[in-house]
Design goal:
The complex is a heterodimer of chains A (about 300) and B (about 350).
Chain A lengths: L1 E12 L2 E12 L3 E5 L6 H9 L6 E6 L3 E2 L3 H6 E4 L11 H10 L6 H11 L12 H14 L4 E5 L7 H18 L2 E6 L2 H7 L2 E6 L2 E7 H6 L1 E7 L11 E7 L2 E7 L11 E4 L2 H10 L28
Parallel strand pairs in A: 3-8, 3-9, 6-7, 7-8
Antiparallel strand pairs in A: 1-2, 1-4, 4-5, 9-10, 11-13, 11-14, 12-13
Chain B lengths: L1 H4 L16 H44 L7 H47 L2 H4 L6 H36 L8 H4 L3 H22 L2 H23 L7 E3 L9 E9 L2 E5 L4 H11 L9 H6 L3 E8 L4 H29 L3
Antiparallel strand pairs in B: 1-4, 2-3, 2-4
Helix pairs in contact in B: 2-3, 2-5, 3-5, 3-7, 3-8, 5-7, 5-11, 7-8, 7-11
The chains are: A alpha/beta (about 300), B alpha+beta (about 350).
Chain lengths: ~300, ~350
């Protein structure tokens, strides 16, 4: 089952396309990370998936074919928007009661137990909680609905490192114990390495990379060698090049066993390196299906964006 | 593979039943009880004011009509007191009663959607299982009924308050400024103000500007029917009699001579006196223009709405305002459903 499936999905605000020609399928059972620079279309994609926005083009279905925003889809998806919006004048207990009244399922015992663990007092107004506590409360409300898919928009952007760690630990527990699929957007790359096992990279309103982290890491290598020989690899799918004095670093699409030219070293790539490389190179793409990866023209001496 | 790891979700296969409407009742009450309480305090203060001054007015009126003999100096004093002291109060009460529906509607109606959109909490509310158009309807309908009922209660008090003024033929109950302060029209106007506010909140997405827009739109709408629309609810009656039945709402008066239109009766009393001087120079002061001109072969025509049409007009006005409110609320729900972001 795919928790989210889009085809040719696009959203236009006025004359600007916030997202366009987005085609992807995120299978269930993953913590999928949606990564991209600010304004790349991450929030738009999430809003479309949870039914808060209507597509301008194409379509989106969730939880194995349900139309986004349909009653069944709303029932199965819990969404925590950016900055975890809560009614600031309601107490924590009232937020629980509110969420319980607005949903078919609500695990009150789970919610209370979790808030007790976190030391969040039920009587305190939501607006008087710390940023980390507000995020945890919003997450608790979402998980107590027993969703099949949890969608989080920039959940950790406002949190300090400890709150960030605790938050992600909760998400992972829900994923492992209850089998909740998770889709989260973030531009905090370092955090993703630990939690995400599926990566979707968007930039400038388009999906650039989509795939399981394991597969992506297995199909990319970093090559390090003399800068003068960079041109040798122009025919290979090169994603990103970093040149430091005499040494050049290439991120190439290659398996671990692929031959390495003399004078060059190869080593595995980390998720953060991979994401950064693609983000710096909006023209490159790694998508499932027909090869849409193009080699960069790397003729010696030609100043291109990537060689700066 | 995933199906095995999913937690038990009761009624998963039995088909989804929507979250029952009654659950929304608590939500609406909890989130709007402060606005409703505030509205009740405002209306309560207005009611106390109407009650206290109304009691004085009723006492003065009773003293005036029971005064005997009516031609005595003391009775003239009491009538004069009623006119000089209480008629200005009626104007104040009229203004307060005119503003109340607009303020009530704006205060309760504008925040329903505008606050959610302004603070971003719509992203929470509209992604819950209840569904966003049902959520909107579950909020707007009970609140609309609550404000209309509150205004209906106030209109009963306002009915009692104005009773002495109409009893002394202070003005026609159909008069533009007074007609909609009583009866079902008052509740209907409040309902309309609420519906305008709800739609303005959805369109403007900010509480205070939505309130301001509501007041402007409401006052514009409230002025129109009095000045233009209401007299067309039913075709006015025509008469050539000088004395009209009851205390009618006069639309137009004009004279004809030999079956042809002669001239319109002027509005200013100075001009009327001038016409009488011109046509009947030696007439006694009590002679009316109609009586004067009748001697010269003129016929006076009057088009008017009789007082007996008060309740038909109330239901007509209440009816179209109710239809307008339903339309505005439906438009709001449609907008919520269509364009959330």
């Amino acid at each position: 089952m795919n928790v989210i499936e889009t085809s040719g999905l696009g959203k236009r605000y006025g004359n600007t396309w916030a997202l366009r020609e987005c085609t992807l399928a995120i299978p269930a059972g993953h913590v999928a990370a949606l990564v991209g620079p600010n304004g790349a279309g991450k929030t738009t994609l999430l809003n479309l998936a949870v039914g808060l926005a209507e597509p301008s083009a194409g379509g989106v279905t969730v939880l194995g074919g349900l139309p986004a925003g349909s009653p069944a889809a709303l029932d199965g998806i819990a969404f925590v928007a950016q900055d975890a919006p809560l009614y600031k004048n309601l107490s924590v207990a009232e937020m629980l009661h509110l969420t319980r009244n607005l949903n078919r399922l609500f695990d009150q015992d789970y919610a209370r137990a979790r808030l007790a663990d976190l030391g969040i007092p039920l009587k305190r107004k939501a607006g008087r909680l710390s940023g980390g506590q507000q995020a945890q409360l919003a997450l608790t409300l979402a998980l107590a609905r027993r969703p099949r898919l949890l969608v989080l928009d920039e959940p950790v952007a406002m949190l300090d490192p400890i709150a960030r760690h605790d938050f992600m630990a909760t998400v992972l527990t829900a994923m492992v114990d209850d089998g909740v699929s998770v889709l989260l957007s973030s531009h905090v790359l370092a955090e993703l390495e630990r939690v995400a096992d599926y990566l979707i990279l968007v930039s400038r309103g388009r999906v650039q990379v989509a795939g399981e982290v394991e597969d992506l890491l297995a199909s990319h290598r970093v090559l390090t060698g003399p800068a003068a020989e960079v041109g040798t690899y122009a025919e290979r799918p090169v994603v990103h090049l970093r040149r430091a004095e005499a040494q050049a670093h290439l991120l190439v699409r290659a398996a671990a066993g692929d031959p390495v030219p003399p004078g060059w070293e190869t080593h595995p790539v980390s998720l953060e390196e991979l994401a950064l490389a693609y983000l710096r190179e909006p023209g490159a793409a790694a998508l499932p299906g027909p090869a849409r990866v193009r080699a960069l023209p790397l003729e010696a001496g030609e100043p291109s964006e990537v060689t700066r | 593979m995933t199906a095995l790891t999913l937690p038990a979700r009761p009624a998963e296969d039995a088909g989804l039943r929507p979250v029952p409407w009654r659950r929304m009742a608590w939500v609406t009450w909890r989130q709007h009880r402060i606005a409703l309480a505030g509205a009740d305090v405002g209306l309560g203060a207005l009611a106390v004011y109407l009650w206290r001054t109304g009691l004085q007015i009723h006492q003065a009126w009773t003293a005036m009509v029971t005064c005997h003999p009516a031609s005595s100096y003391a009775c003239g004093q009491s009538a004069g007191l009623f006119n000089t002291r209480f008629v200005p109060r009626e104007v104040v009460a009229g203004i307060l009663l005119t503003l109340a529906p607009a303020l009530l509607g704006a205060f309760v109606g504008a925040p329903v959607l505008a606050r959610e959109l302004e603070t971003g909490t719509f992203r929470y509310a509209w992604t819950q299982g209840f569904g966003r158009w049902r959520w909107t309807l579950g909020k707007l309908v009970p609140l609309a009924i609550a404000v209309a009922a509150a205004a209906g209660a106030l209109s009963v008090l306002s009915w009692w308050y104005f009773q002495p003024f109409f009893a002394v033929h202070f003005g026609t109950p159909l008069a533009p400024a007074l007609f909609d302060l009583r009866g079902v029209a008052y509740a209907a106007w409040t309902l309309a103000a609420f519906s305008i506010a709800a739609l303005a909140g959805m369109l403007i997405r900010r509480v205070v500007p939505a309130m301001a827009a509501t007041l402007a739109a409401y006052l514009g709408l409230a002025v129109l029917p009095g000045l233009w629309l209401r007299q067309h609810y039913l075709a006015p009656l025509l008469t050539t009699r000088n004395v009209l039945p009851g205390y009618a709402w006069i639309m137009n008066q004009w004279f004809t001579k030999g079956g042809k239109f002669a001239f319109v009766v002027p509005q200013k009393s100075g001009l009327i006196a001038g016409l009488i001087q011109q046509h009947c120079p030696s007439a006694p002061a009590s002679l009316t223009l109609g009586q004067c001109l009748a001697k010269h072969g003129y016929t006076q025509w009057t088009s008017y709405q009789p007082v007996s049409r008060f309740w038909p007009f109330q239901w007509i006005e209440g009816g179209w305002l109710l239809a307008l409110s339903v339309l505005l609320i439906a438009a709001t729900v449609w907008l919520v459903r269509r364009r959330a972001t």
